[in-house]
Structure formats: C-alpha cells, structure tokens
C-alpha cells in the first residue's frame, strides 16, 4: 500500500491511495485540470481510479468533482448527508455509495472504517482504509481530537493529518477578522500544530510509520514549524514526516515489507 497528496490547503485538497493496482482518490478539491496533471506526475491516469471518497462538502474538497466526473465517471463514496448536498451541486446524477458516519464496510478489496470529524460541515468524516496488513488514515478539517478520532486511527501505519495553524501566528495575523480566527480555532474549525502533535504522539506507539501533514495555512503556519512541533512531541526518529503543499504533489509514501528473520536461515542455512 502507498499514498500521496496531490495538493493540500485552502485552495484545494486531494489524496490518492493505491494497493494491488486499485486506486482511490480522497476528495477532489483541485480543479479537474490540476487533478489530471498531478495524477500524471504520480504515474496514474484517471481511468485507473476505482472511486472517489469525500470527507465533506466544502469547496476546497469537492471543487473539481463535477468536471472531473464528466470525463471519468467513477463511483463516489460519502456519508449520506454529504452525498445529498454535493449532488445538488453536480450537473448530472452520479453513482453514489453512501454510508452512515461511523459505519464500517468493505469495497473493491478495501476495508473502510469511517468516523465523524468535529468540523462545521453537514456530516464530515475521516477514513481508515485497510488492505491486508496495512492501513492509512485520513483526518483533515477537524477542530479538535476526540476519543472517536483517536480510537479510529490507532494502529494505522500511514496518516494524512491536518496541521492548519500555529497559535502565535494566527493571533498575530492582520488579514483575518477576529470572527474568522475564532472559527479557525474553534472546536469545529481546524487543528493547530500542537493538537496534531498530541494526536501523533498517541499513534506512534501503535505503529505509525509515515505521516503527511496537510492543510497548512499559508499565512499562519510553515512546514518547518509544523514538523518542529511534531518532532518535539515524539521520541521515535523512525517516523517519516512529509508536509503537503498547495502547489506540488508529495512523493509516494510506501510501506516497506518487513522480512521475517527466519527467512535468512532458510536462505543461508545454519551457520
């Protein structure tokens, strides 16, 4: 299993996950043109996609969906209320696979665990996507980390996680009115670096190996600051941390197969 982020930020978000030749897109917040270009950079053509998962209906997560689906009609997986709202903005009916937030189900060889996210949308969800012994979690756009989020993500080897802002930078920001700052830092807004770091510290002992930090504010955060805060909270130097940006794709994050020590005995024989 491997995963990458096509782009992440207030201008649009999209993640791709692949295992055994099956490709899943999580959100389509970039333009259809950019989705195609960035998939190509990762060696993927749209026709290879099995489906698109939606976390919620905000524009930076569904902006490119309508045009993209006209050229590449694939099933859309979403919570019931998210599906209803998004369909209203599409020109044509599409194939929906809907579920209740918190539901577990299997599809196309993947096992899905969905969990509610505290965000100001109709029915936002996060995902844990499992195939075989590997699993990847996606949790973007959440105002705080509750027990449901932590429990759902425990045991994942890969994670795409929001780290939207740094407290002091948000407070000092002159571009945003106070009401916007309140929304961002509210219980149903976005995660700070410190909140993201606390969650990562909870997940590392359970086997987290690859982390992509996403949805960073261009004004109230920086990749260096986000990584620094996370590193300060964990002692595991083996955790690979990548920061997604708005304008570039991340490299594929791949899990290396662990070789059973007994294999060497079978290969070389007793010493």
Q: What is the rounded Rg?
A: 19 Å
Number of helices: 10
The name of the CATH topology is Metallo-beta-lactamase, Chain A
Largest sheet: 7 strands, mixed
Number of E-state strands: 14
| Percentage of residues in helical conformation | 25-40%
- The strands making up the biggest β-sheet line up spatially as 6-5-4-3-2-1-14
CATH architecture: 4-Layer Sandwich
- Span of the ends, CA to CA: 35 Å
Overall mean confidence score, pLDDT: 92
CATH domain class? Alpha Beta
| Helix-and-strand structural type | alpha/beta
Strand content: 25-35%
Low-confidence runs of at least 5 consecutive residues: none
CATH homologous superfamily?
Ribonuclease Z/Hydroxyacylglutathione hydrolase-like
In total, how many domains does the architecture comprise? Answer: 1
Order of helices and strands: EEEHEHHEHEEEEEHEHHHEHEEH
What is the 3D shape?
Answer: globular
Question: Could you explain how this protein is built, in words?
Answer:
It is built from ten helices and 14 strands. Helix 8 (193-203) crosses helix 9 (223-233). The longest helix is centred in the last third of the chain and has 11 residues, at 193-203. By secondary structure, the protein is of the alpha/beta class. It is globular. Helix 1 links the parallel strand 3 (22-26) and strand 4. The protein has a single domain, classed as Metallo-beta-lactamase, Chain A (4-Layer Sandwich). The strands form two sheets. Strands 6-5-4-3-2-1-14 form a seven-stranded mixed sheet. Helix content is 30%, strand content 26%.
